[in-house]
Amino acid sequence: MTGTICSVANCKSNHAKAKKDGEIIRFFTFPRSPLTRKQWVRLCHRKNNFNPLNKRICSKHFDSNQFEDLIHAKLTNSVCSKLKKTALPTLFLPNKTEKVNSERNKRYEVRQRKEIVSIF
Ligand SMILES: [Zn+2]
């Protein structure tokens, strides 16, 4: 899939360049849930409204805790490729606001607890 580019406003990730540089970047399609999809669109901080259909966001924007297969990936020494249904891009975003940060911290706590449960 050459020509795949990231939808986040200030992100220069693209599939061809990553391949050339030997970077492992995955591109994720927008979620099916309308609510989560709206949040993704908002977090892209693009000036114009864009249609997220056929658009992608690269894996640089997702914290490792946002992946469903983090433990599996660690065990098999591979790359996470499955996002949680509720995953939101939180890293390397333009104009990061306080609101996003506090929301993220709250979620982070919940995630931590969930992970402890799932490990044992
Ligand atoms: Zn990106």
From TrEMBL:
Keyword Transferase applies: no
A single GO molecular function term of this UniProt record: zinc ion binding
SUPFAM superfamilies reported in the protein's UniProt record: Glucocorticoid receptor-like (DNA-binding domain) (SSF57716)
Keywords: DNA-binding, Metal-binding, Zinc, Zinc-finger
Domain THAP-type: from-to ranges: 1-92
UniProt xrefs under PANTHER family: THAP DOMAIN-CONTAINING (PTHR46600), THAP DOMAIN-CONTAINING PROTEIN 10 (PTHR46600:SF11)
Protein name in the entry: THAP-type domain-containing protein
